[in-house]
């Protein structure tokens, strides 16, 4: 074992064996991150092929019958989460059991109805993922800087809570305590309804003329990116969190109806104001979203034209580094048939002039600056 790995293992908050049930995207990603910290990771999965892939890619070892884990992480589809939690609590009486399902109230309700002792169970949910699933798409860094909700209750011991929050911290995430109901209402708004909205909008493209779709720019790609998600998983998630999702959808439907009414007669008194207020309220909502490092910060965007040749983007970043300009965010847009792309680079306002002057002096073409 290398000196670096020994140092990292000593710093890990989670000790002993961590059993991960479910070797898909989240389970295998947790395995990769913990293995890198020197933690003994035991993987189990109902799919032998998925398990083999996760082990082959280095997410952990195969679970053994004599394992005595300190922590069990349940990372299975929502429709079997409660069943697996119940089984793991019974099978490993010395372990704390958590899960990473995206709905928290339904498993707790089901387990309580069965009379399961939940003293050693703590629900949790990392707000992280990728459009692709499975062990082959797993990455150790997908949790870095992301919120990780931990749902404690009056039965939760301080030591057990510290173990689950330690898991989140070891993976680079930020633990946030919520009740299951608070969590489910929150993800309905910021995750589940956005998925439906993206899917509904992208669904309008199915019968659209090819000529219309050739006009699609980065805005529509950003808006519909998550529409590529797996239907099978989302049917389960939305079904398990139906009531909070319906509340948000009904409010959104009322907003859409109001805008449609205004646009049916755009010259009617108050119609243009209704549309403007809708856009302005959206501005205000975006301003409330946490930015880099969880802060509400406003950046300015410099749009740089980048030739579509190898190494150009790397050169751009290198020269921004020489100018001591930190890139807060980046978005790339390619126009069909064009021999260049547009790099939209977000920087703090105080760095805008330094970036523009320095890049232009080095031969870069600045397309625009947006604040």
TrEMBL record:
Enzyme Commission number(s) of this protein: 1.3.1.12
Class of the enzyme per the UniProt entry, highest EC level: oxidoreductase
Gene Ontology terms: biological process: tyrosine biosynthetic process
Name of this protein: Prephenate dehydrogenase
Domain of life: Bacteria
UniProt cross-references to NCBIfam families, sorted A to Z: PRK06545.2-3, PRK06545.2-4
Record flagged with keyword Oxidoreductase: yes
GO function terms (MF aspect): NAD+ binding; prephenate dehydrogenase (NAD+) activity; prephenate dehydrogenase (NADP+) activity
Native source species: Microbacterium ulmi
Domain Prephenate/arogenate dehydrogenase: 16-293
């Amino acid at each position: 074992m290398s000196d670096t790995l020994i140092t990292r293992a000593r710093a890990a908050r989670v000790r002993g064996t961590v059993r991960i049930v479910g070797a898909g995207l989240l389970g295998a990603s947790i395995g990769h991150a913990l293995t890198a910290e020197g933690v003994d990771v035991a993987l189990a999965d109902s799919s032998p092929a998925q398990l083999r892939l996760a082990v082959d890619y280095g997410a952990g070892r195969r679970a053994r019958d004599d394992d005595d884990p300190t922590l069990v992480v349940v990372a299975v589809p929502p429709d079997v989460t409660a069943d697996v939690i119940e089984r793991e609590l019974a099978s490993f009486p010395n372990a704390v059991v958590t899960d990473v399902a995206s709905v928290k109230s339904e498993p707790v309700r089901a387990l309580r109805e069965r009379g399961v002792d939940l003293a050693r169970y703590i629900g949790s949910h990392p707000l992280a993922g990728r459009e692709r699933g499975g062990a082959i798409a797993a990455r150790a860094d997908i949790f870095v800087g992301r919120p990780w909700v931990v749902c404690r209750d009056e039965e939760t011991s301080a030591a057990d809570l510290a173990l689950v929050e330690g898991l989140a911290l070891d993976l680079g995430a930020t633990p946030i305590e919520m009740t299951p109901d608070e969590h489910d209402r929150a993800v309905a708004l910021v995750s589940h309804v956005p998925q439906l909205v993206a899917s509904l909008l992208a669904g309008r493209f199915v019968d659209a003329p090819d000529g219309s779709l050739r006009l699609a720019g980065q805005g529509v790609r950003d808006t519909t990116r998550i529409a590529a998600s797996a239907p099978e998983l989302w049917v389960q998630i939305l079904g398990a969190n139906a009531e909070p999702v319906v509340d948000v959808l009904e409010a959104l439907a009322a907003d859409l109806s109001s805008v449609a009414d205004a646009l049916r007669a755009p010259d009617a008194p108050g119609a243009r104001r209704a549309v403007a207020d809708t856009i302005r309220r959206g501005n205000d909502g975006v301003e409330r979203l946490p930015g880099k490092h969880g802060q509400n910060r406003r950046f300015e965007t410099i749009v740089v034209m980048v030739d579509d040749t190898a190494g150009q983007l790397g050169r751009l970043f290198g020269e921004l580094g020489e100018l001591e300009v930190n890139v807060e965010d980046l978005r790339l847009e390619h126009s069909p048939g064009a021999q260049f792309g547009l790099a939209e680079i977000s920087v703090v306002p105080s760095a805008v002039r330094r970036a523009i002057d320095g890049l232009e002096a080095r031969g870069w073409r600045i397309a625009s600056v947006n604040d």
